[in-house]
Design goal:
single chain, 184 residues, alpha/beta, Pyruvate-ferredoxin Oxidoreductase, domain 3, globular
Length: 184
């Protein structure tokens, strides 16, 4: 089985960190094949950013496809750009705190999560990517949550004081993803 994921938003939302943590979790703790492909806009912080993660049981022929199984969008511009690339039957994960647009497609599953709002409730907008990672993992069950948490810990190991906040952010995201999975 192969899963193609695109994560898209603007610089400063932790787009690359989300993709890299997921890729590292799959690579370091499973026997799956993994690719991570970052793509930055020409702008600096606030410009466009997206990355691709492919997780597969088989060798990965090409890291990028025109059609994605899953897409995470963190802003409206990313929704407009990447929505057509979600395959029929695919899944779209939306930061509903920012993205208010109608999806207009009945052939995909849409999971909405107010990750910016939740991050602000936790007191730090920078954890919105960890919340969305939790939503994705909780919904898809692509990798066990404890393995993903270990990758988060490794990535943020030098910022020990932020680990409790990130643990709570990940926990809340997992709960949202699991609840959405049960509601489908």
């Amino acid at each position: 089985m192969e899963t193609n994921l695109c994560v898209a938003g603007f610089g400063g939302q932790g787009i690359m960190a989300l993709g890299k943590i997921l890729a590292e979790a799959a690579c370091d703790s499973t026997d799956k094949k993994v690719t991570f492909f970052p793509s930055y806009g020409a702008e600096q912080r606030g410009g466009t950013a997206n990355c691709y993660v492919v997780i597969s049981d088989e060798e990965i022929g090409a890291p990028l496809g025109d059609v994605m199984d899953d897409i995470i969008v963190m802003n409206g511009a990313s929704l407009a750009k990447f929505l057509p690339r979600v395959r029929p039957g695919g899944r779209l994960f939306v930061n509903s705190s920012i993205v208010k647009d109608e999806i207009g497609r009945g052939d995909i599953t849409v999971v909405r999560a107010p990750v910016t709002e939740l991050a602000l409730e936790l007191g730090n907008a920078k954890v919105l990517n960890v919340i969305m990672l939790g939503v994705y993992v909780g919904y898809t069950r692509i990798i066990a949550p404890d393995i993903v948490w270990n990758a988060i810990e490794q990535t943020l190991g030098s910022k020990v004081s932020l680990l409790p906040l990130n643990r709570e952010a990940f926990r809340r995201g997992l709960a949202l993803g699991e609840a959405a999975r049960e509601d489908r």
